[in-house]
Amino acid sequence: MLSVKHVNKSYKKGGLFTRERQQVLSNISFDWQQGECLGIIGESGSGKSTLGQLLLGINEPDQGRILWDGKRVKDRKTRLGNISAVFQDYTSSINPFYTVEQALMEPLMLHKKMRQAHQGNIDQLLHQVGLDSSYRQKYAHELSGGEAQRVCIARAVSTEPRCIVLDEAISSLDGSVQIQILELLKNLKTMYSMGYIFITHDIRAAAYICDRVMILRNGHIVEIVNVEQLKDVQSPYARHLLQMVIT
Amino acid sequence: MKIVTRIGKDKLAAVCLLFIAAILVTGVFAPLFAPHAPEEVHMELRFAASSWEYWLGNDHLGRCILSRLIYGIRPSVLWVLVALSISVAIGTTLGFIAGYFRGKADAILMRVCDIMLSFPGYVMTLAVIGILGAGLENILIAFVLMKWAWFARIIRTSVMQYTDTEYVKFAKAIGVSNINIMIKHILPVSLPDIAVISSSSFGSMILQISGFSFLGLGIQAPHAEWGMMLNEARAVMFSRPELMLAPGIAIILVVSAINFLSDALQIALDPKLMTSRHKWQGKAIALASKPHGKEVA
């Protein structure tokens, strides 16, 4: 279980000696339950990607705590095998010197006990995301966007983590591929019984896959609602967002 | 090994690589290759033209020019290479620390670099030689002291650019240690940048060493060094201009070979040119099946 308590984050503005800071996230608190798919929705600049980086331990909050089963998520031992990620930009998401096989082996190699067990599983992983074993020897620049994103998803699920943070994972793909990837994510979720934190600006995609949705604006949580009650949101900003989608 | 085979495909680069390797080997085993002792004076052979015994002729003291050229590889190429590798190593380490961790480490290291870079290189080298005294070792120490900041600066920029890529973020997220991320993910992609800047400064360092020897601050008199040979030939520039040819051409050839090689290296290290092996395998299968088909027919 992931719990976020009173998190604040700001970035330094300007040079070495300025004290001026830009507040990106203020007083964010929420819990993520095991196996749940939580959507984080916001416009660009709302701080959702920063929040994603904090959840992944890439960055540290200024104040507040982010705990995974009571341990700090910033320690890499806590994250090891528990949390994984898929990012937006498929062009830089795989090391250009790695073949697909090497990219998939990277998270597996971190787990000493899994090293042998998973040697033969690369084919199976590729198969699960709809690619065949001929992709093993391909390099990242030989893949299309959808294929690269599938490889990233395979890489994320390879260690069977309990939570995957998807930071705009489908946003740079075109429409038909988006739906395929969403389907794939749904299937994998039941197969591995894991949960997602799905960061997006696309309400429809979030409504399709998420159980709960958190709406973020200017670094503040506007509202957290279950997806079934998405129509009955209270706050004016959330209503406005929904309106934009419908029209 | 992949890189070597890919450089082999580029004819010019292959020639440069062989040439540089040959120069290095000749320099290391100079006593075996040199036909005469480099400091052996034969006043009767002053300015002698090339002959079977002295291939490139003799200089103003009747010394064998070829032997001096071969012994000159040591200070001009080998020691410059050592100084270069040390300063690149320091620059790479600090550049990686500054570019990868950012924040305070970056700010402090870059301010130190600013201070180092604010002195003009030649003046600082002269000052270091003034403190430590003339001699090749002191010039090399001065080079290391002056050059690392420049390398650190450029490598930091390159590292920063790759630290923002998503595969590095992914590696961080799943808990790969920082050292491993730097070695596996950032070093290979920033290697072309490092190769290009170090090769370009290799040329300028050879020329600088020659320059300091010219001023009498580098290698001391009887020892052979390319820049000093050029300086000695300068005295008779109008009566015997051919004496400048041997060291001059040697410097030009080595510096251009290094520059051509670094260009080729940049292309050879480009991951976009790597293709998956299965295509080759496919070709091999197609080739293998052809004669089989004939047999059936």
Count of DSSP-assigned helices of chain B: 12
CATH topology of chain A, by name, is: Rossmann fold
Structural class of chain A: alpha/beta
Overall pLDDT confidence of chain A: 85
By CATH, the superfamily of chain A comes out as P-loop containing nucleotide triphosphate hydrolases
> Would you give the CATH topology of chain B?
MetI-like fold
Low-confidence regions of chain B: 278-297
SSE order of chain B, as H and E?
HHHHHHHHHHHH
Note the gap between the termini of chain A: 37 Å
- The amount of helix of chain A comes to 25-40%
Shape of chain A: globular
Q: What is the global morphology of chain B?
A: globular
Radius of gyration of chain A: 18 Å
Q: What oligomeric state is this?
A: heterodimer
The CATH level-2 architecture of chain B is identified as Orthogonal Bundle
Could you characterize the architecture of this molecule?
The complex is a heterodimer of chains A (247) and B (297). By secondary structure, chain A is α/β, with parallel strands linked by helices. Chain A contains nine helices and ten strands. In chain A, strand 4 and strand 5 form a beta hairpin. Chain A is globular. The model of chain A has no long low-confidence stretch (mean pLDDT 85). In chain B, helix 4 packs antiparallel against helix 5 and helix 7 runs antiparallel to helix 9. Chain B starts with a helix and ends with a helix. In chain B, 74% of the residues lie in helices and 0% in strands. Chain B has one domain: MetI-like (MetI-like fold), CATH 1.10.3720. The radius of gyration of chain B is 25 Å and the shape is globular. The chains are: A alpha/beta (247), B mainly alpha (297).
